[in-house]
Design brief:
single chain; 287 residues; alpha/beta; Rossmann fold; seven-stranded parallel β-sheet; two-stranded parallel sheet; 13 helices; 43% helix
Length: 287
């Protein structure tokens, strides 16, 4: 039995869709806080169970019988992410799960200036000390986030950021398909695996791509952190979120997202989508 959490979200939901192309629905279970949102899977014969990382008492029953558990990282901005993940890992131990796969991040590290990267590193440490067989899927930074991380350049003609560095922008759809491929392997992959697109362009590189796509020069600038924060807040963004995003740019500058790995293409059996492909879609959607 393969059990998948977060299946009502875009990432693990797509993984379930890929698994259903290869496995009968009876071999899959999805766990969600709101089972009503998983109706499309229930209609296809997938078992749907209620489970919440903030309800540790109920999680072992939700994970019961899982040979493989695909554990999505929490995206609850108001939650205690590390405690939520600890609840899930401890429930997996109690339930006797055979193998845990965790959706981590390529830049996982306790010293990263990007807060989620520190949470991912802490969760990997939990898994390493849990006694469970485990895999962390260190996915590259999801490329669809370029829609906002490049800023309102299509209106202003300028990409203005507080720091620049290489990022192995990876299509979330490709990462979802790769997770399914790993779950379907005859021999499970152990420990951290890096799932990225084959290139890591900088924001400056992508600005040049944007210029080519729109047929006009798009300027690029790196501004002081405080100036960038002030501009974003003045533009209507909430300061806590702005400072949260600042950590991403600083992590990129320090090289946390620079590495690439051929494994994604090998799992897909084709070339992964590139940042340029995604940026082309953004331009077309807003053209």
């Amino acid at each position: 039995m393969i059990t998948i959490t977060g299946a009502t979200g875009a990432l693990n939901g797509a993984t379930v869709d890929h698994l259903l192309q290869h496995l009968p629905a009876s071999e899959l279970t999805v766990v969600t806080r709101d089972p009503a949102r998983a109706a499309r899977f229930a209609e296809r014969g997938v078992t749907v169970r209620q489970g919440d990382y903030d309800d540790p008492a109920g999680l072992p029953a939700a994970f019961a019988g899982a040979d493989h558990l695909l554990l999505v990282s929490s995206n609850d901005p108001a939650g205690d992410t590390i405690s939520q993940h600890r609840n899930a890992v401890e429930a997996a131990i109690t339930a006797g799960v055979g193998h845990v796969l965790y959706t981590s991040h390529q830049g996982a590290g306790a010293a990263s200036p990007f807060v989620p990267a520190r949470h991912h590193a802490a969760t990997e440490d939990m898994l390493a000390s849990s006694g469970l067989p485990w895999t962390s899927l260190r996915n590259g930074f999801y490329a669809h986030s370029l829609q906002w991380l490049l800023g309102p350049w299509q209106r202003t003609g300028v990409v203005s950021i507080p720091a620049d560095g290489p990022v192995s922008w990876t299509a979330r759809e490709d990462a979802a398909e790769a997770a399914a491929a790993i779950l379907l392997l005859d021999e499970p992959v152990e420990g951290p695996v890096t799932i990225t697109a084959p290139e890591a362009p900088t924001f400056a590189d992508l600005t040049r791509t944007a210029s080519d796509l729109v047929g006009n020069e798009v300027r690029f600038e790196v501004v002081d952190d405080d100036v960038w924060v002030e501009r974003a807040v003045a533009g209507g963004q909430q300061e806590p979120m702005v400072r949260f995003l600042l950590g991403m740019y600083l992590a990129a500058e320090q090289g946390w997202f620079a590495g690439t790995d051929p494994m994604l293409g090998e799992l897909l059996g084709r070339a992964p989508r590139s940042a340029q492909d995604v940026l082309r879609e953004v331009v077309a959607a807003n053209g």
